[in-house]
Design a protein that fits this description.
The chain has 302 residues and is α/β, with parallel strands linked by helices. It has 11 helices and 10 strands. It has 2 domains: 7-80 and 218-299, Rossmann fold (3-Layer(aba) Sandwich); 82-175, HUPs (Rossmann fold, 3-Layer(aba) Sandwich). Bound molecules: glutamic acid. Glutamic acid is lined by residues 11-13, 45, 175, 189, 193.
Length: 302
């Protein structure tokens, strides 16, 4: 199952501690990378200071280590890579692929927030920069778990933001620049980002960058049926009981129980998991019983 040159990554935003849903994405991408004999990188996506929780990035790295998910190389921090995003943006502006946009949020509200043409009477000192999405633009790709996925980007997304009016970099630009710069061959992440992939592919094409393979893992849903978030609503993981959590996440990935004895070490569990992992068994959606995993295995915060 070795795939020469495979390089995967896990790229959390430090907006809170890792919860079971984000750890599921970390475990899935780690298993796929290691099973392919490849590398697995960690990148902290800290480009949104207003949403950043102090100490969260280090806590996320500590959690990964406690769960035995060790990365290769140095951790990359997006906050230190603005020069790369600026260079990409300059190219897109010079090519005419990107443009300054003075439209306010309220001006776009009538079109459901989808930008197709600038509203001429608006002019602001702090324009956003968007990628121009041509009329009729349809992007399709083959996801390893979801199969063929297609999106009409002009109708469903519109011209999308690369640099926000507050000067912050948009996730879409930063992730594309970094995945290419770091030589990522396989993007494995949560299915909440499935609909971002066509945007990222358009940017890759506009910048002449390769498109990695994609696998979007099932999301864990909270009791309300919504995706767990790293915000206050999602309880952090207990790092003192990593095996119980790893077993639950293994179930959520659709895998058969491991014959791993009563209490192996985390490293021994992961070794067995690597030998037994069957990517073709990963479901589109996590079974309901998995959805509660974070509740039974979490500590309540004061
Ligand atoms: N930073 C994103 C998140 O925490 C993930 C980005 C990605 O994997 O492409 O949801």
């Amino acid at each position: 199952m070795s795939r020469p040159g495979y390089r995967g990554r896990f790229a959390p935003s430090p907006s809170g501690p890792l919860h079971a849903g984000s750890l599921l994405a970390a475990l899935g991408s780690w298993l796929l990378a290691r099973q392919a004999g490849g590398e697995w990188l960690v990148r902290i996506e800290d480009i949104d200071p207003p949403r950043e929780v102090p100490g969260a990035a280090q806590a996320q790295l500590d959690t990964l280590a406690a769960f035995g998910l060790h990365h290769d190389g140095e951790v990359a921090y997006q906050s230190r890579r603005g020069h790369l995003y600026q260079a990409a943006l300059d190219r897109l502006l010079a090519d005419g692929a990107a443009f300054e946009c003075h439209c306010s949020r309220s001006a776009l509200a009538t079109a459901g927030g989808i930008h197709r043409r600038c509203v001429p009477r608006h002019r602001r000192p702090d324009p956003a920069i968007r990628l121009r999405v041509p009329d009729g633009c349809s992007v399709a790709f083959d996801d390893a778990i979801h199969g063929r996925v297609a999106q009409r980007v002009d109708l469903e997304v519109g011209d999308f933001v690369l640099r926000r009016s507050d000067g912050l970099w948009a996730y879409q630009l930063a992730v594309v620049v970094d995945d290419a710069d770091q030589g990522i061959t396989d993007v494995v992440r949560g299915a909440d980002l499935l609909d971002s992939t066509p945007r990222q592919m358009l940017l890759q094409q506009a910048l002449g960058l390769p498109t990695p393979r994609h696998a979007h893992l099932p999301l864990l849903l909270g009791a309300d049926g919504r995706k767990l978030s790293k915000s206050e609503a999602a309880l952090p993981l207990r790092v003192d009981e990593p095996l119980a959590t790893l077993r639950r996440l293994w179930d959520c990935l659709g895998q058969s129980p491991l014959a791993d004895g009563a209490s192996p070490s985390v490293a021994a569990f992961l070794d067995r998991a690597l030998a037994a992992f069957r990517p073709d068994r990963v479901p589109l959606r996590a079974p309901r019983v998995c959805a509660a995993a974070h509740n039974t295995n979490a500590v309540t915060r004061a």
